[in-house]
């Protein structure tokens, strides 16, 4: 199974981007889907998680600006990013979990210029 992430790019501070991630085949039943990011020289950090049933968890630094949504029927997860800041610059990775396995996408670069 491959996770294909897309939607990254170069934007100015204050602008928006929407990331998408779709699995190459159905992962039903999906337990959780998430986004992580890794900035240059830093460890990978948690951004947001969508849980089966629709509840979400968003990390403090992006709360109020980023929204995660999921479509488990499509094995797809999305990240709407508003009011982007230079510190949001990173490679963003999607992650999907079934009850037995974990999958990672290849990453999509988000660069925010100030």
Provide structural commentary:
This protein is mostly beta strands and 114 residues long. The protein is 0% helix and 54% strand. It is built from no helices and eleven strands. The strands form two sheets. Strands 2, 4, 5, 6, 9, 10 and 11 form a seven-stranded mixed beta sheet that branches. A four-stranded antiparallel beta sheet has the order 1-3-8-7, with no helix packed on it.
What is this structure's SSE topology?
Layout: E1 3-6, E2 9-12, E3 17-23, E4 32-38, E5 45-51, E6 56-58, E7 66-71, E8 76-81, E9 90-97, E10 102-104, E11 108-113
Parallel strand pairs: 2-11
Antiparallel strand pairs: 1-3, 3-8, 4-5, 4-9, 5-6, 7-8, 9-10, 9-11
Distance between the termini: 37 Å
Calculate the mean pLDDT score and round it. Answer: 96
Number of discrete helical segments: 0
Q: What is the ordering of alpha helices and beta strands?
A: EEEEEEEEEEE
Runs in which pLDDT lies below 50 for 5 or more consecutive residues are none
Globally, the shape reads globular
Structural class: mainly beta
How many strands? 11
Query: Percent of residues in helical segments?
Result: under 10%
Strand content: over 45%
> What is Rg?
13 Å
Largest sheet: 7 strands, mixed
């Amino acid at each position: 199974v491959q996770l294909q992430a897309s939607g990254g790019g170069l934007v100015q501070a204050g602008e928006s981007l929407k990331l998408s991630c779709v699995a190459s085949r159905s992962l039903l039943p999906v337990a959780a889907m998430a986004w992580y990011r890794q900035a240059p020289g830093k460890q990978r950090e948690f951004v947001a998680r969508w849980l089966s049933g629709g509840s979400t968890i968003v990390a403090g630094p992006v709360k109020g600006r980023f929204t995660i949504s999921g479509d488990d029927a499509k094995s797809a997860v999305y990240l709407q990013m508003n009011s982007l800041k230079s510190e949001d610059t990173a490679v963003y990775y999607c992650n999907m979990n079934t009850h037995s396995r974990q999958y990672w996408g290849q990453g999509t670069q988000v660069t925010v210029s100030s």
